[in-house]
Each structure stands twice: as C-alpha cells, then as structure tokens.
Amino acid sequence: MTLSDDAGRGGTARDLTGQVSQRPDGGVGVRVEIPLRWGDMDAYGHINNVRVAALLEEARIHAFGVPGGTGADGLPAPVSLLDAVPDTVQVLIAEHRIRYRRPLEYRTVPAEVWVWIDAVKAASIEVAYSVRDGWDGTECVTAATTMVFVDAATGRPARLTEAQKSTLNSLTSPTPASDGRKCPNTPGNST
C-alpha cells in the first residue's frame, strides 16, 4: 500500500510497508506502517504513551515475524527472525526505553515506524525504533527494546546461531551500538 501522490509528505508516494530499505537517517531498517486507532488517543488528541508501546510491539512483529508456536499463519516477515526461533526458545523483553520527542497526534493515516537492530549480543539483541507521523514524516518517538533469547526448559540464555547473527548484523547501524541506557537518535548517542 502506498499513499497517493497528493497525500501527505509534500505529495511524494512512499515505498511499500514491510520492506528493508534506507531509513531517513541513512541507516538500514524495516519500514512498517501501523494504523492508529481512535481508542489509542488520549484526552489531548495524542496517542497515549501506553499505546505507543503497543505500536512498537506491532512494528517489531511485522518486521521480524510472529514468534514460533504462537499465532496463525500469515504473510512472511521481511526479516525472518522471530518466526525462525524454535518452539524450545522463548524471546523475552528485558527492557523498553522510550523517548517522546513530540506528540504523535491521531490521524487516519498510519504511523510510519522504522525498526532496526542496534546491537547483536550472544543471547540478546537491541531493537531500535523511530516512530514518525504518517502525514508529514516528523519523528515523534525514538525507542529501544532489549530482547533476550531463553531456553524454555532451563530458563538459561539461548545463544543466537551464526546464521541469525549474520541476518541481524545486516540491519545494524553503521555506527557503534548505543550504551544501552539511551534511545536511538538522542543527544550523546552514536545511533
């Protein structure tokens, strides 16, 4: 789905959602359009902060797939990560860091969410996000999520395979990873 030439962004059509391509800041990521819902809005007309966390989750699943053993079949993910994890491994969220840069106002246009990998470690990854207004492309939210891979039977970390690391490294920032305390694109951070 693309926006028509006369809609938003100064009249420019956009690439299809769910494709790996160049981010607005020059790095590589997956661009996902996430529809905003009327119920996501708070009393000020902005998307509620708790709903922003849900938008991040939706974007992550659209970009990397539905975790194995959950959900029903659908379209393949642009980057096969979560759907390629065996049922014996759980993918857990260890931490979210969200920075609200400007209000994301409710619109009938989907939000544009860029998702990429900020760091790949032995049994975890740092997922980075840029949430942009779907009408004018203004960055409203930057965020990062630490995802940990855990053996379901033992509860111990499950190391990523070399193939998984290779796929993930293709989506990492060309600059060094963040220090784990800051969101991407914030002052003092290298991404």
How would you summarize this macromolecular structure in one to three sentences?
The protein has helices at residues 49-64, 162-169; strands at 19-22, 28-34, 89-100, 111-120, 124-132, 139-151.
3D architecture notes:
The protein is of the alpha+beta class and 191 residues long. It is 13% helix and 29% strand. The protein contains two helices and six strands; from the N terminus they run E-E-H-E-E-E-E-H. The chain has helices at residues 49-64, 162-169; strands at 19-22, 28-34, 89-100, 111-120, 124-132, 139-151. A six-stranded antiparallel beta sheet has the order 1-2-4-5-6-3. The chain is globular, with a radius of gyration of 17 Å. The two termini are 29 Å apart.
Describe the main β-sheet briefly.
Answer: 6 strands, antiparallel
Report the principal-axis shape.
globular
Work out the oligomeric state of the chains in this entry.
single chain
What's the tally of helices?
A: 2
Give the helices and strands, then pairings.
Layout: E1 19-22, E2 28-34, H1 49-64, E3 89-100, E4 111-120, E5 124-132, E6 139-151, H2 162-169
Antiparallel strand pairs: 1-2, 2-4, 3-6, 4-5, 5-6
List the keywords.
six-stranded antiparallel sheet; disordered C terminus; alpha+beta; 6 strands; single chain
